[in-house]
């Protein structure tokens, strides 16, 4: 049995509207996912999972007063799900022998050393996320994704002033959490 032509036409309109929305915001969504996952393939996978969910809920997203904020909420949930899924799979993984050919594409010491500088920031951002999630989101979006305060306000469904304040307060808390030395105004 087939759907009525009107229903098929409406579904086609919804699909086109979702596609236009997603294409317009995909790069921003990917940057957001990259700031949390630190790997392009992982970020892309989480984004595609989020896109599927967004497509399923497109009517609700489209009717929302701030569609980007709702889509961002879905993306954040999918990023968290990605971490949970990875943890569940890691518990069940069993190493397969120690054949050096099998590990030729494994992580090298240089890869680990390159990420060393991110560790204190990642720990501090995780702590800030638990203490003040809105501030952590603002810091990530502004400093790691390069978004303006207007874009952050739209993504988080807050005012521009709140985005600016939360970014400033979050940066100060990160500074304290990372035990960075106080910066002076310079010598006169």
Describe what is shown at a glance.
The chain contains nine helices and no strands.
Number of helices: 9
Largest sheet: none
> Which regions contain 5 or more consecutive residues with pLDDT less than 50?
96-104
| SSE class | mainly alpha
Tell how many strands the DSSP assignment holds. Answer: 0
Give the helices and strands as they follow along the chain: HHHHHHHHH
Percentage of helical residues?
over 70%
Name the beta content range: under 5%
Using only C-alpha atoms, the radius of gyration works out to 21 Å
The coarse silhouette is globular
Termini Cα gap:
82 Å
Mean pLDDT: 83
Description:
- By secondary structure, this protein is mainly α.
- Helices cover 75% and strands 0% of the residues.
- The chain is built from 9 helices and no strands.
- Helix 2 (40-56) crosses helix 4 (67-92), helix 6 runs antiparallel to helix 7 (133-144) and helix 6 packs across helix 9.
Fill in the keyword field for this structure:
single chain; 188 residues; mainly alpha; 9 helices
Task: Walk me through the topology.
Layout (H helix, E strand, L loop, with lengths): L4 H33 L2 H17 L1 H6 L3 H26 L16 H7 L2 H14 L1 H12 L4 H8 L3 H18 L11
